[in-house]
Amino acid sequence: MGKIRNSIVIGTPLMIAAVAFTSWFESGPSGSRLVAYQDQGGVWTICDGITKGVTPNMRVTQEWCDRKLMETIESHSKPLDKVPYQMTDGARLAWGDALVNLGGSLANPAKSTPWRRLVAGDWRGSCDAFLMYRYTRVGDTRRDCSLPVSKCTGIWTRRNAQRDLCQGRITVDEFLRLVRGTPMNQQRVTD
What count of other Cβ atoms lies within 10 Å of the Cβ of residue 32? Predict the structure, then answer.
């Protein structure tokens, strides 16, 4: 039996889907932001959520954004190779996006309920646990993004999409068809 590979690798069809998924939630249908901006937490950001090395007034090309996003997804998904069983493509894609969006601490067994569930074989429970990450902080204020008044419901939509894709409630192909034709807040992602 060969080594299990769950990470998302540049040049694979799953990477194309991962870029579409992450890009949709980071930039929406308008596409990548080619000029640096500060996100709601005050972090300098560019493209589809890239923060490493970003400075004020930085400008890049779409090609630069695409390459950086693929590198980021590949790098952040490497912990998935530690999962002792083969994950579905939907679970790999959802976990890859969650690792990009939430950072490497998501793969820290001492801090992450989803990760502990995933490596223990409770992949369905790990998908449900994405919903635990529904909060954001703006300044000193903690917001629950599952509440419409929070003004951060995109995070809640993303967590539900990650969970649904991870559990197979929606396939990778269905997701790609949906984002190409329907805004995420009007699709079948459930609460």
Answer: 20
Beta bridge partners of 191: none
Backbone angles phi, psi at 188, to 5 degrees: -80, 5
- SS3 of residue 38 by DSSP: strand
Q: Which is nearest to 24 in space by CA: 162, 134, 167?
A: 162
> Has residue 28 got a pLDDT over 90?
no
CA distance from start to end of the chain: 39
What's phi and psi for 110, nearest 5 deg?
-75, -20
3-state secondary structure of 120: coil
In this prediction, what percent of the chain has a pLDDT beyond 70? Answer: 92
Q: Which two tokens stand for residue 34?
A: 């080619």
Classify 13-185 by CATH class.
mainly alpha
Which residues sit opposite 143 in a β-bridge?
Answer: 136
pTM: 0.86
